[in-house]
Amino acid sequence: MSNPDPVTFQLAGLGLRTYPGEYPVDGITPYRHQWALHDALTAREPGTFVNDAPTGGGKTLSWLAPVISEGLSTVAVYPTNALIEDQKRNISDLLNDVDGGNDCQLLAVTSETLQNKYAEQFPEASSNGKRLSLLLKQAFSSRKTVILLTNPDIFVLLRREIYRERIGEIKRFEVAVVDEFHRATRKERNTMLFLLDEMYDTNESVCRLNHLVFLSATPEVRLEKQFEEAMVAPYYRVEDFGWRNTPHPAISRETPSTISFSPGDLPADYRAVLPPVDLLIEPAPTFGTATKMLDNEEVVLERLATGRTVIMLDGVHEIDRVYDRLCRTDLTRVERIDGFHREGVREKINTFDTLVSNSAVEVGVDFDTDQIVFSGHDAASFFQRLGRLRTRSDRSAAFAYAPPYLFHDLEPLADSLSRQWVNRTEFEKCIKSAYVDSSTPASFDWRYSAVEAYDHVEERVEDAPSDDQLAVRKTGWYRIESHFFNREQEGLSESDLQRIHGVADSELLETLKTYRGESVQTLVYNQRSQTVQTYNLPYLLRHSDISFHTRDDFLTHLPDELIDQVSRLEPYSSGYCIYRGDFQPSEIDSDQAAGRLFTYKATGELYSLLSDHPRDIRTPEVCTGLEVEVTPSVNGVDILKDDLSTDQILCYPLEGHVSQIQNQYSLGSFGFIYPLLYSEGEAAVAFGHDALYLHCRVQDRIQEESSTFDEVLDF
After folding, report:
1. pLDDT tens, 337-354?
2. Do residues 76 and 148 make contact, with C-beta atoms less than 8 angstroms apart?
3. 3-class SS at 501?
């Protein structure tokens, strides 16, 4: 069967109008959304503000300028440590141009900085919690505006005081900014919104937080409903300008603040934030883009020769294959950035002609490029990657690889829009409606987020003075009901929630307390880059040249300066691994894309969970005794088995083949479940939060056949 011809679209550029005025940043003429958030914060207007300006439209400056000029201490939460570092660099460069920038103290806090930089700064502190407490006390005692850049994991630990240190300084922040919020999972969104809502609703004499700012794509219906109905703070879309009786004078004109434009058509008062793009889409399965590209190598090389190009793929093994092949061509300055190759990022960004990458550059890495080549396994990834072509008015090119089902749905749309410059908003609606929805199930809210929140509330009750405990519990219950239960479901009571909470044992609750959950990772020494990190164990076993070692032997292979990092990372990993590069299969089994055969094995508690508990009553449980099997064998795999067997991890096994389960429960290719050796037949297993999501989908099927809601509450 011949390959279908690609479909093409001409996407109009996106321009934002500039509006002059007394803005507190030198050399800046702001956009409407920047004026809007400036006016809200300088007027001290309390609320939840969502800024969904396009990528490259200056969302960071929209909050940074007013909080610094007005002296509003702010905690800004970013999804990745790379983005924290990037923002720290960008904000530092801006401070001299912002009114009040000289009176600002900028802090970047991650687990790495707490273990290294701040451990040296506060040698008397014996834990991360104590270091963070001392750091914030010192910052606030300076009487400067404090800007804390951190990740969601640190923020959640701060708010819940899981560091076991009373870090009261978090209550002194007046503004909370959450970046890239649309990229968070359902569990992550629920956790963040609940904790921020609780902080906002606390008496101002206790907690000063009055402004919640979310930098995000346009919120979908469910998320907008959460903002409007669950949060105590009034909800505003920044572009709506709805909190001002008299809008800013510069914005009272009839001209639109946002326009689409074709090449050469951008009016003088507008700046391009997204260029006109010639978009070509071809079909390729998820994790199959590299194969598709290499099968059409001549065409791909012709495209890459026409301009500076960024390639964004899904799997590191795809990067390995494409990068290795491109390095053997006549292309110059081919670079790669991924989880194993983050050294020298700035130099690579400045010098590449072709950059091969994955989600490592999807957010947090600024680059300029003439064109992009990317895989779009879901709608969010498709538009995030397409949006990396930005802040240019010149016509650009994009080459996308989409799931085959989506490609076939787009063929008639492309024919109907042939030779037209298509409005991006309309195009985005069409694409999003065509993707299969593999989002997490709505029942996760009341099955698990409610449990997590209830446990949090009960801990707050225990810490409260006896006279306040009843009020804390009632307020907490109302917040749980607002956030996680459908108001149309009558008859829910606190006893119902206590019953749900009783089902979850303490080990499961500990898993829920973490922001991102857990996965099966191992501690890796990368001999190529001379770095230590944790990484996904299934990927390493399938696609890497690795060996496993005892801890003592592992340490003998490390440079002295890396040994201190081991104690920081080993609590989050299983085993000790040395990485030498890519796995090179033998000629007999030369399918590099597939890699080694890898599976987990059902033993001990995991076997009992599968064999002794029917699917209709089986729940995720924290198990030990996990084993792995890999063919061809890996040096030291028996050592890994010993380390892995004693670790505790949240598991949910199901009977059936992986692909069967993915199809049956609409998990999509990124609903991570793994094959499981089971003596009674085919089986698969999910870990961490993925285990909870899969359990919800299974129970939703059972709920469809249940006659009463009480049966569902009992799982």
Report:
1. 987 887 888 889 889 999
2. yes
3. helix
